[in-house]
Amino acid sequence: MITGNGSGLVSTMLREYGSLTRAALKEYLPEREPRRYLYDLLNDYPQRGGKMMRPGLCIATARMFGAPIEHAIRTAVAIELLHNALLIHDDIEDGSEQRRGAPTLHLLHGVPLALNAGDMLSMMSLRPLLDNRAVIGDDLALRIIEETERMARECAEGQSMELGWRHYNATEIGDGEYLEMVLKKTCWLATIFPIRVGAIIGSRGTADLEALLRFGFFLGAAFQIQDDLLNLVGDERYGKERDGDLWEGKRTLMLIQVFRQSTDDERERLGAALVGPRSTRSPSEVQWMRSIFEKYDASAYARKIAQELAGAALHEFSLISAGLPASRDKSFLEQMAIWVIERN
Predict the structure, then answer these.
(1) CA distance 69 to 202
(2) 160: which of 70, 149, 151, 298 is 20 to 30 A away, CA to CA?
(3) Helix, strand, or coil here: 300?
(4) Which residues contact 234 (CB under 8 A, 6 or more apart)?
């Protein structure tokens, strides 16, 4: 079992690298017209805060491999722009009502304007990647753009799996299928891509990207399962909507475990409760789903898997970093494996 305090250094460096990224982000989010219908919307989600994990991983990995912050900051900005673009789109697709403790963009401004803002942020994320050419050279800048294209494809495939399961009300999903979806939908953007592009920058393209893929997968999957667990609790301080995944009918590791453990009658009722979009579910149905999760202690099962994945991430990181000198960034990346499952 993973134990220890991974929060101190990680939280400090996320704030530090997050502040640097936000400052650089202002260059790419201009204050111009039409402000009310577009540019104010582009600034909304980035201004709400967030953990800034993705840019933090990018910068820390680049520095661990020997690059200065200046070489990684534009890539970190691109990652944050794209992350916020996909949050807007995800919220529309999921019918979500809250994001970072406030109403989602499409509830504030309507789906058409929110969708357009998400599209714009996606396109704007290319600009800092092109600006990389003046800092790290054409070859490395092109490699990062190639990594971006792969990440976008993997992420879209994973999102389609999750949306398809909900649309067709899939009830026979295994742990392996869930982890494949998480690998694509969550891990590529949240951990694998930031770590790999950071390593490309820091090592000047010599790092073993396959080893970094494994580390990023284990780290990102543990992060996602912890996110699913936190969703059952909900906390306004962190922008978590209690039971949001149940309202939206998301297929989590806990739901998969409940389908395995429940009786035939319970499975039939659970499947019926998951049919249709969020608006079709009642508070009593969501409360019943919570009770069945508790009956079969699904959270304990998911927590155990997250612990195992975090342990695997620590092992992979020990192999990746064995030949690198001790540094604050190296310690940060190692402690991320503890932080992702301890955060609340």
Answers:
(1) 10
(2) 298
(3) helix
(4) 240, 241, 242, 243, 244
Q: What is the band of 277 on the pLDDT scale with cuts at 50, 70, 90?
A: confident
Side chain identity at residue 142, one-letter code: L
- 8-state DSSP, 325: P
pLDDT band for position 344 (cuts 50, 70, 90): low
Count of all residues that appear for the chain in the document: 344
Q: How far apart are CA 11 and CA 78, in angstroms?
A: 22
Q: CB under 8 Å to 209, separation ≥6 — which residues?
A: 196, 199, 200
* Tokens coding 32: 């111009």
- CA–CA distance from 26 to each of 35, 57, 85, 152 (Å)? 15, 20, 16, 24
Identity of residue 302: A
> Cα separation of 106 and 102, whole Å?
12
Question: Which residue type sits at 164?
Answer: G
Taking the model in full, what pTM does it have? 0.93
SS3 103: strand
DSSP string, 240-281: BPTTHHHHHT---HHHHHHHHHS-HHHHHHHHHHTSS-GGG-
Q: Show the beta-strand stretches assigned E in 60-124.
A: 98-99, 102-103
How far is the CA of 182 from the CAs of 98, 159, 219, 228, 331, in angstroms? 22, 9, 11, 11, 26
Place of tokens 């963009």: 105
How many other CB atoms sit within 10 Å of the CB of residue 163? Answer: 15
Q: What is the pLDDT of residue 232?
A: 86
Cβ distance 88 to 115 under 8 Å? Answer: yes
Q: Are 285 and 316 in contact (CB under 8 A)?
A: no
Q: 195 exposed, middle or buried (CB, 10 Å; 0-12, 13-18, 19+)?
A: buried
Whether pLDDT at 234 is above 70: no
d(CA 239, CA 232): 13
